[in-house]
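Holo prediction — flavin-adenine dinucleotide.
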Amino acid sequence: MDLGLTAEQQQFQDLAREWVDREVVPHATEWDRAEQVDTKIVGKLAELGFLGLGIDEEWGGSGGDFLTYCLMMEELGRGDTSVRGIVSVSLGLVSKSIQKYGTEEQKSRWLPALCGGEMLGCFGLTEPGTGSDAGSLITRAVRDGDDWVLSGEKIFITNGTWAGVALIFARTGGPGPKGITAFLVPTDKSGFVRNEIKGKLGLRGQATASISLDEVRVGDEARLGAEGEGFTIAMTALDKGRIAVAAGSVGLARGCLEASIAYAKDRSQFGKPIAGYQLVQEMIADMAVETDAARLLVWRAADLVDRGLPFRTEASMAKLFATESAVKAANQAIQIFGGYGYVDEFPVGKAMRDARVTTLYEGTSQIQKLLIGRALTGISAF
Ligand code: FAD
């Protein structure tokens, strides 16, 4: 068994690490306070090929395997979960769905612009009344001649106010998951209204929006995949998306661990560095072990993806463990920083606020447990 990275993956990791240290880490607190990242970061991410990782070169992507994508997620997550989320939604959920399910026309229309950072994508699944139970969504798409007319409400949509294209899931058939179809909706369409949700606990640098679709008219060429295939498209995107969230959480936890070690060695109380006290070392050891264990779960799931093997349950395991570990790591980091951890001059308070959402989106921790439980017992407890 080889748990090492290839020379190419190692080289990519070094590049991502150095770039995040230079372009993201120094600005993360300022973006958090301003409730907006500097949008120039999108162009910079694209320049490096980060917005096209895993997308074929013929569509403007930069290729690369899924483990490399997870390495990028870990580094971006270490720098700023808001930036990580911008990429994991636009690239991981939208571009990759277009690559997998899109027609040649859809790929050539959207992928070069998304990979090139000319626009971002957003993923519109959640609605005010349907979060975990996304298969019951009520946004409708009704046939009108050759067109579709979409009406409904979406909420908590990452990149919602910035995106040029929205992957919208709407009901075209009867109740349940089989009645859902996916559409690629240009966000400048008449009737497409988005409002930024302000005052979030974390992920404050990232634009999260509510979207109203008021009789938005699109042609049939906007339909992604077959009629009734929408829920499969959403779940396929989220299966891999969960590994990406897990990888980003490993990065967040690693950031907390590194900051805690540095601080504990520097901060003296009772005449010696607090790093020399066993109770502080216990917290550092716990953080290190859980972060490594989470990374191994991420790498196992990513390896299954790269080998074309089933990975759904392993993705849920990685997401559940890595996100819960990240919350714990951030909390322990605040403990190690003492009162200084409670003010935003140091990064660990922001890490705690950012980590908290990872156990909620792309399937809450409870939903991951139900998915794992169903896979192991064969009985659905939903
Ligand atoms: P609910 O589903 O109402 O759940 C509430 C609680 O009940 C949770 O603890 C849950 O685990 C529990 N629960 C629900 N059902 C069960 C059950 N069967 N058994 C046990 N417990 C259960 N959505 C998108 O479509 N696109 C995005 O880009 C996106 N970005 C987001 C960004 C942010 C910052 C946030 C906060 C959310 C985002 N979401 C997005 C939405 C997110 O995926 C949902 O919030 C999530 O799926 C949970 O849905 P809910 O909030 O409606 O909670």
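READOUT: The pocket of flavin-adenine dinucleotide is lined by residues 89, 123-126, 131-132, 156-158, 200, 203, 208, 357, 360-362, 364, 366-367, 370, 382 (CB under 6 Å).
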